[in-house]
Amino acid sequence: MNKVVETTVEEAGNVGFYMDFFGFRERPFTLVPDPDFLFWSAQHRRAYSVLEFGILSRAPITLITGGVGCGKTTLLRELLRQFGAKITVGLISNAQGGRGELIQWVLNSLGVPFQVTTSYVQLFQKLQDFLIEEYASGRR
User: Fold this and answer.
1) What is the 3-state secondary structure (H, E, C) of 70-82?
2) Distance of CA 108 to CAs 21, 70, 80, Å?
3) Which terminal CB of the chain, N or C, has fewer other CB atoms within 10 Å?
């Protein structure tokens, strides 16, 4: 017979509840993915190698896709930790819309300011100018 464990709301909200139970020293479940808790499966190593190769080969863009919760953001955070200020990463999640909206998602992810009313051609020019500036400054 299964034993039911009764827990109060206060106990459940206490991080120590599961940390003590599982013997954790740090919180493994946070809102922001933490590369310290990255599980290096064969697929994660392969995906990281592809991202790393994209940077080292100066590829203009490298794309990684996968299901929800499979570790894409955590891999990117590890990549940022390794390469730091040498690279610029734009993270786009759940983008919707047509090409005009997509370029807005890209600019937003790269921190490039724009007006929503700006034409597609002008947005494309902003992106192109940003990429040229990044390349000229030696960033990837």
Assistant:
1) CCHHHHHHHHHHH
2) 42, 24, 18
3) N
